[in-house]
Automatic annotation (TrEMBL), chain B:
Organism classification: Bacteria, Pseudomonadati, Bacteroidota, Chitinophagia, Chitinophagales
Superkingdom of origin organism: Bacteria
Cellular compartment(s): Endomembrane system; Membrane
GO cellular component: endomembrane system; membrane
One GO BP: ATP synthesis coupled electron transport
Protein's UniProt name: NADH dehydrogenase
Family classification: Belongs to the complex I subunit 4 family.
Residue intervals of the NADH:quinone oxidoreductase/Mrp antiporter transmembrane domain: 130-421
Topology class, membrane: Multi-pass membrane protein
Length: 466, 497
């Protein structure tokens, strides 16, 4: 599977001289190939590539999620960049490199591969965020991300070095062994703290979230979707693997720290989102809150992994659908990110508004959409581990979240302003394909909301493969 | 199976309305009407045909169970007993009337409107028959979202504010309930090793003092927000007065009943000790609701707000009766649910008709309408009298039974509650006086009297309230089993303090 992954990227590197469309189609086919390959190699799992990588059920799940998200992001990108008439070839290379980085993160069990994956991801993201050079926002966002990401990499390296100094190993399992033998020293805890800072930055956890809103707003819509899903899935995967290896959830200090972070995420994310007028910024803050929810699953240890995977799946589908709508509604000059632009969308184009509404309901966790069972499973995991404080905060902040999702929804259904002229669609086929895939996403959301047991069973099966 | 059919018809009918409306709005109306009538007739026909005997041992009329998410012990379990049957019939009766009374009122986007209307009804019906707590929560939310749209899109001037408030209040309660459901699920699982959300299994859970009380509070808060109980009633006047007529009808007639149903079905049987422990407080708040609601109703000038506050007052009786823990009071509570649904529903329909004609809800701008609309005036008088508890009409029976049942339990509170009846007379008569008596204020054009469609609506409601008042025995027979056989014993003399 790793080979399949690499092959995709290599082939695309060769293909970059061809036209936009060709790249698009090739990329699409390759991604489908990877998904198929995953299906076939499932029986041969787990496979280890010592000492750096391990491909087990969890890795396969997270990678599958990443590939799925990239498929959609790729589709969205085509229509987005074609309308902007910039040269998008390098864009795809960067996109797939970033994907590769993210995929490496999911299968790494060694600090070296962890760091390589993370850097691959971040370096590609610097460029991706600032890809539309003639937009001020984009450049600003890119630079912001660059500075902060470089800083967090430094933190990560320093933390790794400290842990290496203490335990004499960079492999997760070996660290765990050394830890069992010697207990956690001050330096080890410090190293851990520094790593948490770096990961917190990547996941935009409070208090390392300051970049999120600006970057979400400045980056092109498909790239924002990419940051919100693919990069976060990868980092979350490595966090889970690392934590499970060293039994982080049994360390009281670590649990306290993560509890505080989770609560801060839920509260800060939701409060900041309340009054946003910009849809992309709003989604940024809401995603901070969502990762707060996800940490609740993370904190419940082994039991929560299944819930976490399901949550990430629901969350990715939802966000992709939402950003898909933003992409389709964006005009040549600017992204459709002002809330006022969505006024009365339901009466102008009911389909788009319906998809957006379903996505928002899913984010809010209303039944009949995937967000509901997802939140339900997380709550279940939390209640099972008797984390009452977190569960109650989750519930109360969800109510807060409801307020701003409803605000968007009621805007969608408000009386429409004077209808602006419809822009001619440049690429009817791709426009159609994108819309169709968004409809598929919406149906998936509904399906997962009403009948989640199929996915739940499969996730369980996969997680049993060690 | 008929339960699935009944809910399925509504859901499909809703989608059909939406699709059909692109061709013609009229067709959507008829589709909606036919769907609700079918949903109404199916359980009724089934009931008449089978005449199931409600005896002590077999109180469940019909059941349906299928696997849903087996990994978590969640099943699609529907069941109907006498209580559910009555409330379902009330749901669809008011549903039919809701479709009829939005016949001319809704002129734009009627397809989407009827879609929301039917889905709300499906959610409410689901709430009344769900016997799996997860499924119950699911339906609880399904009825909420379309209702939000009904208020937010087709409501009056201040609709967005009202819709927010409605949604956030109920959702807060709902999520607390979800938390409580989960806690119950795990406690039951740890006790028996069988992790399930099934109502009948969970009934056997034994709960310790503090834990039981917290979990019970989670449920209770969700239900008393819906009911509404006084400190949490804030959303109700706004939502009721801003919603379109059919929306107010469903809100007052049905949504409030889901809260009461939840208390009867879940809070009391699942947590007998914990609810006995707070019974005094619940009764106190019920009485506060009765008096406070009545006083506020008397002070309103907006007709719909006035009626909304009378709901607060009437629902206080429900709370009082439910926590009196004896059969007479509980029978009265069920009766109150039905009669309040009919009578308040009728008043809201009337308010809607007046608004259609006069374009105002302000009762100071009305007056003397009897001369212009004698038919409507006469019918209005019936429901005003019902609302103040005149004998022969259903509400009298309900309130009488509740007071009779709660008197031995807590004489002081019952006496105060009876004072509420006097206040009820005050605000009810004020409606009749201000709107229909006195000088005719509208000079420009004489408002027309009832049309044939409106006659049908009002005739149904009038017949229902008079039947309930004259011959309530069938209702008592139907719900007789509901309180005692679920495996819980009413805590006798558990009310202390």
């Amino acid at each position: 599977m790793v080979l399949a992954m690499a092959a995709v990227v290599v082939i695309l590197l060769i293909a970059f001289r061809a036209s936009h469309t060709v790249i698009q189609v090739t990329g699409f086919v390759m991604m489908c190939g990877v998904v198929l390959a995953m299906w076939f190699v499932r029986d041969t799992l787990p496979r280890e590539i010592p000492p750096l990588l391990v491909v087990d059920g969890m890795a396969a799940l997270f990678t599958g999620l990443i590939i799925f998200s990239v498929l959609v992001v790729g589709l969205l990108s085509y229509i987005y960049f074609e309308e902007r008439e910039e040269n998008p070839k390098e864009y795809y290379i960067l996109l797939f490199l970033a994907t590769l980085g993210s995929a490496i993160l999911t299968i790494s069990r060694h600090f070296v591969s962890f760091f390589i994956g993370l850097e691959l991801l971040s370096v590609s993201l610097y460029a991706l965020i600032a890809y539309l050079r003639n937009r001020n926002n984009a450049v600003e966002a890119g630079v912001k991300y660059l500075v902060l990401a470089a800083l967090s990499s430094a933190f990560l390296l320093f933390g790794m070095a400290l842990i290496y100094m203490e335990t004499g190993s960079m492999e997760f399992t070996a660290i765990a062994k050394a830890l069992d033998a010697g207990g956690a020293s001050v330096l080890f805890i410090m190293g851990l703290g520094l790593i948490v800072v770096a990961i917190g930055f990547k996941l935009a956890l409070v208090p390392f979230h300051l970049w999120a809103a600006d970057v979400y707003q400045g980056a092109p819509a498909p790239v924002t979707a990419f940051i919100a899903t693919v990069s976060k899935i990868g980092v979350f995967a490595v966090l889970v693997r690392f934590a499970l290896a060293i039994h982080l959830q049994q360390n009281t200090l670590a649990v306290t720290i993560f509890t505080v972070i989770a609560i801060a995420c839920m509260i800060v994310g939701n409060v900041l989102a309340l009054m946003q007028q910009n849809v992309k910024r709003l989604l940024a803050y809401s995603s901070i809150a969502h990762f707060g929810y996800l940490l609740v699953a993370f904190l419940s240890g082994n039991a929560g992994v299944g819930a976490g995977v399901f949550y990430l799946l629901a969350y990715s589908i939802t966000l992709l659908a939402a950003f898909g709508i933003i992409t389709l509604l964006s005009t040549r000059r600017r992204d459709a990110d002002e809330l006022s632009g969505y006024r009365g969308l339901f009466w102008r184009s009911p389909l788009m508004a319906a998809i957006f509404t379903v996505a928002l309901f899913s984010l809010a966790g209303i039944p009949l959409t995937a967000g509901f069972p997802a939140k339900f499973f997380i709550l279940t995991a939390g209640v099972q581990q008797h984390m009452w404080l977190l569960a109650v905060v989750l519930v109360l902040t969800s109510v807060m979240g409801l307020f701003y999702y409803l605000r968007i929804i009621s805007t969608l259904f408000a009386a429409p302003p004077i209808t602006p002229l419809k822009e001619r669609t440049l690429h009817p086929f791709f426009y159609f394909a994108t819309t169709a895939s968004l409809v598929v996403l919406m149906v998936l959301l509904g399906y997962l909301g009403v009948y989640p047991s199929f996915i739940v069973e499969n996730v369980r099966e996969f997680l049993l493969i060690h | 199976m008929i339960l699935v059919l009944m809910i399925g018809i509504l859901l499909l009918g809703g989608i059909a309305c939406w699709l059909v409306a692109q061709r013609s709005a009229m067709a959507a109306r008829y589709v909606a009407l036919i769907a609700v009538i079918m949903a109404f007739v199916i359980p009724l026909g089934w009931f008449i045909q089978n005449k199931p005997a409600i005896t002590g041992a077999n109180k469940w009329l019909v059941q349906y169970q299928a696997n849903w998410i087996p990994a978590f012990g969640i099943s699609f379990h529907l069941a109907m007993d006498g209580l559910s049957f009555l409330l379902i019939q009330l749901t669809f009766l008011l549903g039919v009337l809701a479709v009829l009374c939005s016949w001319n009122e809704i002129r734009e986007r009627s397809g989407f409107y009827f879609f929301n209307l039917l889905w709300t009804l499906a959610g409410i019906a689901g709430v009344f028959v769900a016997m799996d707590l997860f499924l119950f929560y699911f339906f609880w939310e399904v009825m909420l979202v379309p209702m939000y749209f009904l208020i937010a899109i087709w409501g009056d001037f201040n609709r967005r504010y009202a819709a927010y408030k409605f949604f956030i209040f109920t959702q807060t309660g709902g999520l607390l309930m979800l938390l409580a459901i989960l806690a119950l699920y795990f406690i039951h699982g740890q006790q028996t090793g069988n992790y399930t959300f099934d109502y009948f299994a969970l009934l056997n859970t034994t709960l310790g003092g503090a834990t039981g009380r917290w979990i019970m509070l989670g449920f209770l808060i969700a239900f008393v927000i819906k009911l509404p109980m006084v400190p949490l009633h804030n959303w109700l006047p706004d939502a009721h007065s801003e919603a379109p007529t059919a929306g107010s009808l469903i809100l007052a007639g049905l949504l409030l009943k889901t809260g009461a149903y939840g208390i009867l079905r879940f809070v009391l049987p699942l947590f007998p000790q914990a609810s006995a422990a707070i019974a005094w407080w619940a009764m106190l708040l019920g009485v506060v609701g009765i008096v406070y609601g009545a006083l506020l109703a008397f002070a309103q000038t907006d007709l719909k707000r006035l009626i909304a506050y009378t709901s607060v007052s009437h629902m206080g009786f429900v709370l009082l009766g439910a926590f009196a823990f004896n059969e007479i009071a509980l029978q009265g509570v069920v009766m109150q649910l039905l009669t309040h649904g009919v009578s308040t529903g009728a008043l809201f329909v009337m308010a809607g008709m007046l608004k259609e004609r006069l374009h105002t809800r302000d009762i100071n701008q009305m007056g003397g309408l009897w001369t212009a609309m004698p038919q409507m005036g006469g019918l209005a008088l019936v429901f005003v009298m019902a609302s103040l508890g005149l004998p022969l009409l259903g509400n009298f029976i309900a309130e009488f039974l509740i007071l009779m049942g709660s008197f031995p339990v807590n004489p002081v509170l019952t006496v105060i509650a009876s004072v509420g009846l006097v206040l009820a007379a005050l605000y009810s008569l004020r409606i009749a006086q201000k709107v229909f008596m006195g000088q005719l204020q509208v000079v420009s054009e004489r408002p027309a009297d009832l049309s044939a469609r409106e006659w049908i609506i009002m005739a149904c409601l009038t017949a229902a309230i008079i039947c309930l008042g004259l011959y309530p025995q069938p209702v008592f027979d139907l719900v007789k089993g509901a309180f005692f056989v679920t495996g819980y014993q009413l805590p006798v003399a558990g009310v202390s303090n």
